[in-house]
Model the fold of this input.
Amino acid sequence: MQVIFEKSVKERATAQYPKLDVEAMDLASLTGGVLRENDAEIPELSELDVVRHFKALAKRNVGVDDTFYPLGSCTMKYNPKVNEKAAAMEGFTSLHPYVEFYRAQGTMKLLSHLEELLCGITGMAAFTLHPMAGAHGEWVGMSIIRKYHEVNGGKRNRVLVPDSSHGTNPASAAMAGFIVESVATDSNGEVEIDDLKSKLGDDLAGIMLTNPNTLGVFETKILEIAKMVHGSGGLLYYDGANLNAIMGKCRPGDMGFDVVHLNLHKTFATPHGGGGPGAGPVGVCSKLEQFLPTPRIVKNSEDDSEMPLIWSDDFPQSIGRVSGFYGNVGIAIRAYTYIRILGEAGLRQASEDAVLAANYLRVKIGKLFPVAFDRMCMHEFVVTPGELLKNGIHTLDIAKAMIDRGVHPMTIYFPLIVSEAMMIEPTETESVEELDRFIEIMEDILDVAKNDPELIKTSPHKTVVKRLDEAKAARSAIVTAGFN
Amino acid sequence: MSYSPHVDADKRKMLDEVGVTNINDVFADIPESIYNPNLNLPPALSEQEALEMLKDFEELNLHPARSGNYFLGGGAYNHHIPSAVAAITSAPEFYTAYTPYQPEMSQGMLQAIFEYQSVIARITGLDASNASMYDGGTACYEACAMAVKQTKKTRILFDSSLNPHYRELLKSYGENVELDMVEIPYSKVASDSIDSISEKMDNSFAAIVVQNPDFFGRIVDYSKLAEVAHKNKALLIMVVNPVSLGILKTPAEMGADIAVGEGQPLGLSLNYGGPYLGFIASTKKLLRKMPGRIVGETVDSDGKRGYVLTLQAREQHIRREKATSNICSNQALCALSALVHTSLIGKKGFRQVSELCIQKANYAKNTLGAIDGAEIVFDGPHFNEFVLRISRPVEDLFAAMGRSCEPGIRLNRWYPELEDCILVAVTELNTKNDIDAYARRLRDWLCK
Amino acid sequence: MVPEELKYTKDHEWIKVEGDEITVGITDHAQSALGDITYVELPEEDEDFSAGDSFGTIESVKAASDCYVPVSGSVVAVNDELENTPEFINSDPYGDGWLVKVTLTDATELEELMDSEAYETLLKEEEE
Done:
């Protein structure tokens, strides 16, 4: 397919701006002569040309609305349409971030209430909605931990991260100025307690955990781990990527976590947008509240019925500003709508259904492909190609064969500790019929892989492009379209 | 209300298959003492009730009578967005998709990001761009981090005419990794900043960061500063308003190594500050130091052109603590909006909106500056905003202008010496009538 | 399969010693484990290193690997060809795929290195 620049026709204009309604002045003198030499080479198309171009691109893309999307660790649940409607309400979208506070009371009240609801869901004392993605939240959380130790005089610069963790964990900890050390996983798929014990110490700042972890396994010794880490003066960081397993079933705060980040675009059904925008709010226990980023929404100390809420920078111990304004407000509005519609029982039900569906698939798929750490799982589980490896069939091949069969592949080659990992997360919004259809697809792939492995190894066959040469892409590094 | 499709029979079927009798058995790994907590949430709502509730929140937001009465900028601007932008970006194939990790079923988003990268490169004049960052401020820090990696030095130099929020962000981010963020006072004559920054500059710095137009809307040609930076084996990072690049000399033409900025003016709603879009562009030489996702062109096994996420060995999921950044999510849908927006306004529209902004802002500057009791603080060329000093307290101005107009941004929180000033922004949405009405009201109040 | 005339490190680098100058590259095993190599970042000439320092990075489609100098010394030559054809490391790891040449400051450091036999044993161990 042509790139949009190749469709451009000289002088073909589209959107028109109004005529200048003031007397025109000389551009060279207005700018002091600081003018660009040539106009930017932006395409020239009619509105219909543009609409058709992007319609064609949309057809070459697949979302949750199109098909089953069991991407482990990403919680690709259905994104309710009402959330989009909510965020698109003009009273929200047209608000400039620098309006006087009295003009923004509606949005501020919503944000403030969302902070409260997230505290209830996680068992934390206070939340910030500033972080604009999960990894951004991790960095904010680790910065808070750093500040806490600094204020308390501890020279603690070491952070532990399980070897099964998301890559963002060590990267975020490093960006927050820590040295990162890995903790091993035991034969049950949980944190290896002896290894953890040997890595405690008075230079330990904390540990970053996901629970359930990236194998879909609940860390059963979490209370013991919390005691150990706290006992050595460290703090516990909760990566909320997998919160969809435990809403209303247990809370990170009750497990002993001091800082958590949530992914609103996973757990709270805001759309992934083809890679973003997401939102990664951070919650803390009460002793860390003073370190939260600024500005924060607080009650107006002056009695002003028109302006009960204000943004305050008056937190001297804060880690400071972490986003341009107030975070991804539009995403917060969507998540708030979702939480209010589901309510407490609805959220609990969502987690129960997500975990039940995952276990159903684990048992059924487990008959086809070996399950890594086969035990009762939470919202996701990991399998491997097993015997198929002998036919030269790898995880990547299975993923590509799924594409030909109309479902989006699961997460592949993650977590890194399981060789040839395939991580499956069905979420609560897929019906049993859909799960059964997926099982049939996996049966079919297994069958074909045994009888005609070449067909699987060369898949996908039915897509707009076949397997792409990634080595060529990285070597030639063509990242922009050339000029015609 | 619930979005879960499972009826009792479905649940029974699944429980049977798992080999348990009760849902609690599935959660047996959770310690009893913390199981099934109370969340203190309000009761569930139907969709209808939820929309009514949202309407109540929406109505608590008090907007000026018309968008032409907004004179607010400071890094986020009110622009016209063609209707087709929302129509196109609301395609669920785009917005309900994940990151394009499986290129064969994600060519749509991959090609769109590739085109977006191309637009950013063409606007800034630089060679390369990534798939987008969270917002302008975080992009500005990531550019500094690139400079630190490239030069192996840890000091960054800028003056206080850089967006105050960006400066705060640089400090929050830099503190963690012990970067030395050196800030010097802004120059009263904008172009003097070249000398004041050059005087402070030595070869211990990794980068100079300048904003053009600066936070006060002032335009400067920073070409000389690029030479100073390069002589000291440092990079020049330029923060730009993309709309200004419809007419202004580009970062590349000035010799900048990296350009970053807030992409919101390219077709994104104000949204009370987000989601926005940070863009980052650089020379080819710095491409492999870039953070985040990058889309590259390649071919498939039949030799057909296609797109993939590329240069992934820079990123956190491969390099973990040694990655160029921890960033994972980008703002893909916002980048798509920016691409669609620029495609719709086209080459001509991109220049036109830039000209409308500078012409109208300068009309407003001349009109408001001519009022007795008001003056324009800084001489020299301005793009779409300017600082206005008034003879009566700023605090009272907002009451005097009333609910129908938002006259500008107070500057006292960042610039105590400008406590009697406001920053006024003008875009194509502010008509001559809006500006004249503003001037009338201001004159009446100041002359009282 | 492993050239007998070379020395080896546990990081899967090979070293060819010629007087007081050594040439460093990565082994066939290492290139195969990395897969299609897409980019190599190498030091400047005249840069000094201590034994064990990282002198560069090799990137493939799905991995990135640091390279370490096995002995202290100063870089005298860098394989510039790799800038445009990093795939030489895949196709000819012991020849055209060499990375850097370094002058030795302390020849005794060479004694730490493995011979081909010891390296083959290491490969076998790692396989298990």
Observations:
- Residues 7-127 of chain C form a domain with the OB fold (Dihydrolipoamide Acetyltransferase, E2P) fold (CATH 2.40.50.100).
- Residues 73 and 105 of chain C are 5 Å apart (CA to CA).
